Amino acid sequence: MEQFTQQLNALANRFEKIRENILTEEATKTSLILPFIQVLGYDVFNPQELVPEYIADVGIKKGEKIDYAIMQGNDPIILIEAKSINEKLEKHDSQLYRYFGTTKAKFAILTNGMEYKLFTDLDEPNKMDDKPFFTFNLLDLKDSQYYEISKFRKSDFNIENVLNSASELKFTNAIKILLSREWEDPSDEIVKHILNDVYPGVKTKKVIDSFRDIVKKSMSQFITEKVNEKLQKALKSTASGEQLVQSEHSNEENGSKEIDNKDQVITTEEEIEGYVLIKLILKEFIDPTRIYYRDNKSYFNVLLDDSIRKWVCRLGFNSTNKYIQLNDEKKTFLKIDSVNDIMNYRAEIVSVARQFDNTSTLSST
Questions:
Q1: Which portions of this protein are annotated as coiled-coil regions (predicted)?
Q2: In the chain, which end has fewer C-beta atoms inside a 10 angstrom radius, N or C?
Q3: CA 55 to CA 89: how far, in whole Å?
Q4: Model confidence over 83-120: pLDDT tens digits?
């Protein structure tokens, strides 16, 4: 699964670089869609696995063709209708709808190379649903989506297994869309529902409008606090919080060690957020289980293999002058204003981590 995730991420990175050069539907097929099918494990040059221009007769119309059919034996199992990367997909649903009922395929994919919409027949047998049960964008993949996409790999594909999860996915995605909309702009109904337990007065339109921003802010703070709480518990359970740490840069560089009083070291939410950001930055290149942290009084270390000799960077968040220090040749200090500024130095962080990832002579401590 980890290898598959890395392949999808590599594909997305490649797409970003060439996207502006893809101007036609044919270029979209060749540069975007066929590579995605290859990542799923299918041989795009083998007509026993992938048939381009698959003939799907529709009613009295003969010779109707669909762009691709992924085959299993002599029957198509997945139909793929391709559009140009510059086209939106909504208006094309009816075209794929016509093809669906003429074959034995139980799944249909509508795609422009970046966005993928997956359909089946949950509402009525052998009739493609009006709405997809699963939608994803290769340039904005969520963690949960990698697993769902993996079910369509040649090695894992099982019609019954996918159908069993399709119904749940359909409603899960619909609920996520609803929650996302309410998150951005809470509706009158949501605001009123919340006020029922916290505001004793009459919930007039004016009252609801006056509380809308408060409700939005409260929801945001609640989610942030819950996420940080879970992150701290999870990270502290895997990190070596009670291991020996070195209190000063000079002592550490000279090889001497001084034990910080662990009772005086306080790991803040801001430091945990920074650690998580760095872990996300590096996950495409390095197994996340190899990335640790050690918190000192003066700074917060992020390192590989729990080895102080392999520290990637240090976060200085204990004063108003925040910084990130890289473990490159110059031990570069970079001033930052907020945790999110770490993302501005993504390439530099990856470069340092790769340097230590490739150094086999360094020993763990």
A1: none
A2: N
A3: 22
A4: 988 888 875 555 677 777 777 788 999 999 899 999 98
Whole-number Å distance between alpha carbons of 45 and 25: 19
Full-model pTM: 0.55
363 secondary structure, DSSP code: P
Q: How far from chain centre, in Å, is Cα 189? A: 31
User: Residue 153 in 3-state DSSP?
Assistant: coil
Q: Name beta bridge partners: 135.
A: 117
Q: What is the pLDDT of residue 100?
A: 79
**C-alpha to C-alpha distance for 52 and 70, rounded to whole angstroms:** 9
113 φ/ψ sector (left φ>0, alpha ψ -120 to 50, else beta): left
Residue 81: which residues within 8 A CB-CB, separation 6 or more? 66, 67, 92, 95, 96, 99, 108, 109, 110, 111
How many beta carbons lie within 10 A of that of residue 317, not counting itself?
A: 20
Tell me how far CA of residue 329 lies from CA of 302, 326, 335, 342, 361, in angstroms: 17, 9, 18, 19, 18
DSSP state of 202: -
Residue owning tokens 């560089």: 253
**Mean per-residue pLDDT, 152-170:** 82
